[in-house]
Amino acid sequence: MMADQASILEQLEAVSRAFKTQLPERGREIERQWSAVRKQPDDLDLLEGLYRLTHNLAGAGGTFGFSQITDVAREVTEPLRITLKERKVGLSDAEQASLDARVKLLTELCIHPTLDTEANIPPAKPLFPELPATLHSLTKLVYLLSECTEDVSGLVENLQNLGARVGLFESVKSLGNAILETPPAAVLVNSPADEELLTFDLPETVIRPPMIMLSESDDFDSRLSAVRAGMEGFFVKPIDASAVLNLVDSLRPREEASPFRVLIVDDDQSQAEYASIVLEQAGITTRVIHDPTEVLEQLAEFNPELLLFDVYMPQCSGIELAKIVRQMDNYVGVPIIFLSVERERIRQLEALQTGADDFLTKPIRPKELVSSVMIRAWRARTLRWLMVRDSLTGLFNHAVIMERLNNSFALAQRQNSHLSVAMIDLDHFKRINDNYGHSTGDRVLIGFSRLLRERLRESDVVGRYGGEEFLVVLPDTTLEHAELVIEAVRTAFAKTSFTANGALFSVTLSAGIAGFPRSGSASGLLDAADIALYKAKEQGRNRTITAAPQP
Ligand SMILES: Nc1nc2c(ncn2[C@@H]2O[C@H](COP(=O)(O)OP(=O)(O)OP(=O)(O)O)[C@@H](O)[C@H]2O)c(=O)[nH]1
Q: Residues in domain Response regulatory (predicted)?
């Protein structure tokens, strides 16, 4: 859940204050390091220490509203960088003399810091509008406004069969109150006799949910008045509940998806904390580590969808870290963004050659950081989604459901727990295509997939095995319980009506179920479920058969 804006501002102010409080000590540390360097100008370790201290300041200064510190720190770090990384020799007398004044100015600025007149942080107002928290949890809730509830009882049942929660309202007033209290994913308006019903007002603070018109007639005037009333969808009776819910899905705001996970690796605590707060306030979940050697552990445990690396870190550079990650097959698709004080385009491009995706320069504006992270994380998530999902139904594709079955089986064996598998096939599906057309057949497949997703637990795995055949893997579920669950799916689906060319029809399914420990291998489980499904078909379809125990 997103933190509220006030607390985000407080956190940003706290990090900024902490940075300012530490500045004098950081300045004195640089002073001490510089005098050690002057005594032993050939000692590259001392020089490296000075580089690290000034480099971190160059990044953090501007971030927290001390841009003069950033400017002077950059003037110090650049000659140090060249000396250390390119020449690999100590400082000459002339170089020391030229650096001396700049290091002294830098320490002076740290000991007596002054904020920029227009400090970047803390921001004067919230950076991004906050989303209502309820959008995250109530997407399957739809409200139905109908002057006569009996008119819509069939539709309500169909919507419920497909997994939606339905709130039914007879008056605009009660609907308005309910929207205020719990915003739904959409409001369906059953063709009102009184057009006034279409134009109800909500207080300005309330986000108006998408509205969908359910109309008696398909004439131009009805459509026009629906458009004028701000309706985003228009359906003519008889209403196909699955088509309505498909539209509701497409109208849902993207933000309801689970938050992106970003791993931040930066040895500078204040910088890492700043990036973390900025991203968290935009709804992104972050985890921060200061020691790059912990990255492998965090990759496995946190499973980040994007990596944000500082470039210069003493134990291991961000570039080396990116190379390590890119050598690991599992994480080859995880975007990497560098966040560094480096402004030289050519060196940024060198860093990007590791297979990283973007190079952002510190100090970075919050909005820029959030956009860059969001765009890349979203693209990576979409690509991953497309790779594992069936394009028609959005369920796992054949390869992935098989992989999940094998994983679940191995886990059940290790933990000695129950596991059930159901093979489901829609009955006489060829007839649906033949009678109503292929696109109606597709709509039935989508509707059934929705029903499966909504009716099963989060932990159950649902995939399209092929054509009109589906595979459901139910971890921690006994055969008896799985039978109850699949039977509930079967009866709900049989009661759901679809429409085609104005006609109503329904479809049934047959299912075969098998369970571990009765079946001793993943493929044995699948075969047993398949044989049970075949029996269900043979015995007349529209039924669930449980596999006989194996000898
Ligand atoms: N619309 C649509 N039809 C599909 C899709 N995939 C497979 N089918 C159709 O599903 C039908 C499956 O037919 P059959 O295997 O003969 O089985 P059935 O008609 O369901 O009969 P039983 O399984 O014996 O009850 C075929 O007509 C396929 O063309 C799809 O993605 N969309």
A: 141-252, 261-377
Q: Find the range with the poorest average confidence among 221-225, 254-258, 485-489.
A: 254-258
Cβ atoms within 10 Å, residue 84: 18
Nearest-10 crossing angle of helices 5-39, 44-63: 150
Structure confidence by residue, pLDDT tens digits, 495-532: 999 988 888 899 999 999 999 876 778 999 999 999 99
Residue-range definition of the domain harbouring residue 61: 20-111
CA 49 to chain centre: 39
Structural domains of the chain, count: 4
CA of 430 to the centre of ligand 1 (A): 5
Q: What does the mean pLDDT of the chain come to?
A: 86
Residue 495's pLDDT is what? 93
Atom of ligand 1 nearest to the CA of 466: 6
Query: Considering the entire predicted model, what is its pTM?
Result: 0.63
Residues 95, 172 within the same domain: no
3-state secondary structure 233-270: EEEECCCCHHHHHHHHHHHCCHHHCCCCEEEEECCCHH
Predicted local distance difference test score (pLDDT) of residue 6: 62
Q: Is residue 256's pLDDT more than 60?
A: no
- The reply to whether 411 and 540 lie within a common domain is yes
Helix ranges (H only) for 425-521 are: 429-436, 438-455, 479-495
Distance (angstroms) between ligand 1 centre and the Cα of 474 equals: 25
Ligand 1 atom closest to residue 425's alpha carbon, by position in its atom list: 23
Q: Give CA–CA dist 350/115, Å, rounded.
A: 34
For atom 3 of ligand 1, which residue has the closest CA?
441
- In this structure, the answer to whether residues 403 and 383 fall within a common structural domain is no
Give the CA distances from residue 52 to residues 30, 267, 269, 270, in Å, rounded to whole numbers and listed in that order.
Answer: 10, 10, 13, 15
Residue 125 lies in a domain: no
Rounded mean pLDDT, 364-387? 86
